[in-house]
Specification:
Shape: globular
Oligomer: single chain
Structural class: alpha/beta
Length: 319
């Protein structure tokens, strides 16, 4: 089995239907109607209905223990597919709305990471993400909260949400604060908006990675710039195809990006929603073992883990 690593997966987006049902039952809830189809899969038809289904799944989360179970379940499953390292995108917005303190939430996630490491040998880390359409003030407040209560497993700062809202430069103060305090930085860009989104991100934010970034393939000059600067793309082919960005994997620009010298990684994004896993992404990438091992190596190198952890992980994945 090829060793694997992942740096683009959303915590709540990793909840499989079986766990969502278990959490709902434990919390005395009934999941919203029509959330699952006849086969027991999440039911959605387009990007907006996907977001609606995502939010409805999250209604099953009520306690710190629930967040522990989510990250532990994902790490256990990824480890069974050969993953040695996962960075999970985690937003404090949802636990805060539930009245769960930042420290309680982080503690539950850390316990889940520790349990998975002890049982499966996988390392997990956390990237705190702000929600773009909630605005730059919320983003800066989130970074300040990170700095007040640092945790060794929180290694980076990122941004998800509606890519068409605000401009990257609006979030420069938040990103600068995170970067100056030693956190790695990434941002979703070039997924549903074109290459101009990536240009703006790499021009105005201190990022070393771009979440998705596949629309960079529409602009040869941008691909050249990404390759020149060594900026890594967190590519999620299964997600892109499921959401209709490309009609099928054969049309996906993964190979064009690689041929242009852009450093890429393979990731699952919101795997149960898109009927994929990290293992599936490696299996369906259309790359030989040498290339896949190289992608795993790039993933570790581009991760926001400390250097000692990176060295240890690279020893595990090198043939």
């Amino acid at each position: 089995m090829i060793p694997k690593a992942e740096i683009h997966c959303h915590l709540e987006g990793s909840i499989p239907p079986s766990l969502a049902l278990e959490l709902a039952e434990r919390n005395g809830l009934v999941l919203p109607p029509n959330l699952l189809d006849a086969r027991g899969h999440y039911a959605w038809t387009n990007f907006w209905s996907f977001l609606d289904a995502y939010d409805r799944v999250c209604t099953a989360l009520k306690t710190p223990r629930d967040f522990h179970d989510v990250i532990y379940t994902y790490l256990a499953g990824a480890a069974r597919e050969g993953a040695v390292y996962v960075e999970m995108f985690c937003s404090p917005e949802r636990p805060a709305a539930l009245g769960i303190s930042y420290a309680q939430w982080l503690g539950a996630l850390a316990e889940g990471i520790d349990d998975a490491r002890r049982e499966f040998g996988i390392e997990g880390r956390i990237i705190i993400i702000c929600i773009r359409h909630l605005g730059p003030e919320r983003a800066e407040a989130m970074v300040r909260a990170m700095l007040v209560e640092p945790h060794p497993y929180v290694v980076g700062f990122g941004m998800g949400g509606d890519e068409a809202k605000f401009a990257p430069v609006d979030f420069a103060p938040a990103y600068r604060l995170a970067h100056e305090n030693g956190y790695g930085c990434t941002v979703h860009a070039g997924e549903v908006v074109g290459p101009e989104s990536v240009w703006a991100a790499i021009s105005d934010l201190p990022v070393t990675r771009i979440g998705h970034g596949v629309r960079s393939a529409d602009d040869p000059a941008l691909m050249e710039e990404l390759a020149r600067r060594g900026i890594v793309l967190e590519v999620c082919p299964g997600s892109n195809v499921a959401l209709g960005l490309y009609p099928d994997r054969a049309s996906h620009p993964l190979h064009r990006l690689i041929e242009a010298g852009v450093r890429v990684t393979l990731n699952s994004d919101d795997p149960p929603f898109f009927h994929t896993t990290l293992g599936t992404e490696y299996d369906l990438a259309g790359l030989d073992e040498g290339h896949l091992r190289g992608i795993a190596r790039t993933t570790i190198e581009a991760s926001f883990a400390d250097e000692a952890t990176k060295r240890h992980l690279l020893e595990r994945i090198l043939p």
